[in-house]
Amino acid sequence: MISTAIRVARVGSAAELAAAALMTLGFPCLMLAALLPSVYAFAAAAAVTYLADHYLHRKDSYLINRLGRIRAGLSIRFLIRQLLLVLLLARLSLSDDLTFYGAIACFIAFYGLQAPHGALATLIQHRRTMPVATRNVDLASRIRIPDAPPRLLLRRSGEKMLHLDLAAVAGLLVSGATDSPAAGFAGIAVTLALGALYVLALVPYVRGKRIPPKAGQVLAALGGWLRDYRPETVLYFSGSKDSAYQVNMWLETMEQLDTRPLIILREHVILEKLAPTTVPVVCVPGGVHLMNMDLSTVRVTLYAANVGKNIHMLRVPTMKHVFIGHGDSDKLASVNPFSKVYDEVWTAGRAGRDRYAIADVGVRDEDIVEVGRPQLAPIQARQGVPGGRIPTVLYAPTWEGWDDNPGNTSLLLAGENIVRKLVRADPPVRVLYKPHPFTGTRSPRAKAAHQRITALVEKAAAERAADPRFTAETAAHAEVKAQAQADLARTGARLAELTRSADDRGDQAQATRDGLVDLPRHEEIARLRAEWNDAYWRSAGSWQHRVITGSEPRLYDCFNVSDAMVSDISSVVSDFIASGKPYAVTDSAGLGTEEFKRQNTAVRAAVILSNSADELDQLLAAVRDPAADPLAGDRAELRRYLLGPDEPKSIERFNTAVAQLALKAEARNVGQAARAAAAGGPPVPAALLPGQRVASAGETDGVTAG
pLDDT tens, 55-67? Predict the structure, then answer.
């Protein structure tokens, strides 16, 4: 029943639902307390509404947004509470008292302060929003960018301003309970003084040297930096906040390019979630600003996702455009017909080429290049299960997708069966459950299934922790575990310190100014992450089940400590094949083994599971005894087919592909210039030759008006 209410109300947890219920019931209780009248009941109900409202705001609850849409927003809720306080004072026979008139005058004056406060806060945020935000780009030497106002002033400024009425409300309630006006007038004075001070504190940030440069100056400074840096290869990305992992997976590859790299993002929310990198990053939300950037030296642009905003870059002919994707799998997204707009499509191995040929979506075979997967270098090959250690099985299902196709994920129909059989396996295995980060974002059923699976794993972990067969190992390794936990705390604290200091850059304007990479810090963070990962796995027994839902440990770290994996049709399977370890894939749609293998290349060397998961014994047998692993040879062959040869290394093939395509782009540009010179006619339009492209009149955000 609670889960149904959570789903209907679209809140994130039972605590949010409780807070919403308390806030909703609190206002009728305020009215009842005012009418009775009861000062103490009113004070209790007011405290509940204040706290519940604040909690929902801290959680960015969906309900808060909805209340604003139905004219019950934050300001209205505060106003209602204040009006009910005035009603309480009247019911207490204080309507002829100075306290009553003081309360009315206070609330009118207090709301009079809201207008300049809101105007100043909005103006500051507007003026400090520059047309571009950057990382690892030196704009500070070209333009002056002042410090951001303290976060205390601008973060949730409207909520903070309204909460200044607490002093007046508390003082007036004390006056109502004691018949003494002193507390009421003291509270009124505090509220009005704090409100006026808050407004005055914002004034300096809209004047003089506290204002960042105008858009034209910022764009000119960026243009100067681009001309000096002369980028050659661009990674272009646009997407939602939940898709940041798609660009993050390419950062290390960009750092290893032989050419000068640049990352172009289109949304600030992606920039905020971008992992640390040494590559220059430019975030350009506006399409016209993007097209006016001097990218004349860029010869290759890489695209990690098929999104509408790609058109703003695709229309530039002086560079070659390549779709590299964000994973390699047999999902329909891997053969999106949109891919034919690119000059080339790069796949990991022969499988990607064949996939496009079978799909027949217009991508020509000669435009496909096999470059491997540079990101897979950290994945360790199979070493076998050391004697005496309990095998580890990773369950890494994908998310529910954008429709209700049962083949999208195993969570709904098979997930609980899979986990139940794994935690009950005899001989025992350790289970790691790491769901896709999008799990439950679209489907309430998938979210509920994930929660049930999490409960199963956690219950099994608690039971195992009390089992004498395993606690004996815990006692034997108590010192190792204690040291690991100490290392975990130490590295975690240091990482938090380093990342916090890196993120403490005020707003995006200040982060742009201060966002140059600190190489020693960058290297220390990388080293500490490796130490943290090692300590994480040592901090609990090698037999202990775990639910891993955060960004750390990363998926590939889970691959390296696992002896087998159960998953769905997704790039996770293709990546895991690089390890050579046994794996199983769930046929959630019930296609049957032969048809499932025919449709999905990556499962040809897998144990195929039905929704009952009865076939798991085959996987566990292969893990425990290599002699009982009939699919080992098939996995090696499939690995070469999906990911390409081991030599040359994938990053070498990737760099070669970039270099060859850059030569094609240069040849095209030289040819255009030569033809224009030979014709002796009007020059080729600037948009068709290397050079800065200027948006024409009537264009808005990259789309021609009319």
Answer: 888 887 777 777 7
The structure tokens listed for 55 are: 């909690």
Q: What is the mean pLDDT of residues 453-467?
A: 89
Q: H helices of 600-631, where?
A: 616-624
Name residue 566's beta-bridge partners: 395, 584
- Single out the residue of 296, 334, 304 nearest to residue 321, CA to CA: 304
Task: Tell me the average pLDDT across 241-266.
Answer: 94
> Can you tell me which residue has the tokens 């998926």?
555
Residue (of 221, 218, 222, 206) closest to 130 by Cα position? 218
Residues contacting 339, CB < 8 A, separation 6+: 306, 323, 345, 356, 361, 363
Mean pLDDT of 611-634: 91
How confident is the model over 564-573, as a mean pLDDT? Answer: 90
Q: What angle do CA 169, 170, 176 make, to 5 degrees?
A: 90
Instruction: Judge contact between 129 and 212, C-beta under 8 A.
Output: no
Sheet holding 261-265, edge to edge: 133-135, 281-283, 261-265, 233-237, 300-303, 320-323, 344-347, 368-370
Dihedral angle computed from the Cα positions of residues 107, 108, 110 and 113, in that order, rounded to the nearest 10 degrees: 170
Q: What is the pLDDT of residues 117-154, one digit of tens each?
A: 999 999 999 999 999 999 999 999 999 999 999 988 98
Rounded Cα–Cα distance for residues 545 and 552 (Å): 16
User: How far apart, in Å, are the Cα atoms of 262 and each of 299, 322, 495, 520?
Assistant: 12, 15, 26, 21
Q: Report CA-CA distances (Å) from 443 to 245, 588, 599.
A: 21, 16, 25
* Alpha carbon distance 591, 604 (integer Å): 14
d(CA 675, CA 684) in angstroms, rounded, equals 9
Q: What is the pLDDT of residue 696?
A: 43
**551-578 burial code (b ≥16 CB/10 A, e <16):** eebbbbbbbbbbbbbbbbbbbbbbbbbb
Degrees, nearest 5: CA angle 87-51-451: 140
Asked if pLDDT for residue 102 goes beyond 80, the answer is: yes
Question: Which region, left, alpha or beta, applies to residue 679 given φ > 0 means left and ψ of -120 to 50 means alpha?
Answer: alpha
Contact assessment for residue 254 and residue 235, using Cβ atoms and an 8 Å cutoff: yes
Cα angle for residues 14, 18, 22 (degrees, 5° grid) = 170
Which is it for strands 699-700 and 703-704: parallel, antiparallel or unpaired?
antiparallel
CB distance 169 to 81 below 8 Å: yes
Q: What is the pLDDT of residue 2?
A: 42
pTM of the model: 0.80
How far, in Å, CA of 37 to CA of 40, rounded? Answer: 9
For tokens 């350790």, what's the residue?
Answer: 430
Q: Is 580 left (phi over 0), alpha (psi -120 to 50) or beta?
A: left
Nearest CA among 50, 83, 88, 48 for reference residue 177: 88
CA distances from 613 to 140, 201, 406, 588 (A): 59, 64, 15, 10
| pLDDT at residue 1 tops 80 | no
Nearest-angstrom CA–CA distance, 363 and 344: 9
Per residue in 627-648, is it b (16+ CB within 10 Å) or e — as a string? eebebeeebeebbebbbbeeee
DSSP per-residue letters across 280-292: -EEE---HHHHHT
Residue 189 CA to residue 102 CA, distance in Å, equals: 10
Distance from C-alpha of 677 to C-alpha of 674, rounded to nearest angstrom: 5
Reading the block at residue 330, the tokens are: 């047999």
What's 374-389 look like in SS3? HHHCCCCCCCCCCCCC
Gyration radius of the chain's alpha carbons: 30
- 133-135/392-396 β-pairing: unpaired
CB neighbour class for 297 (10 Å; exposed up to 12, middle 13-18, buried from 19): middle
- Under a CB-based contact definition with an 8 Å cutoff, are residues 151 and 174 in contact? no
Asked if 566 contacts 608 with a C-beta cutoff of 8 angstroms, the reply is no
CA-CA distance, 531 to 567, in Å (whole number)?
Answer: 28
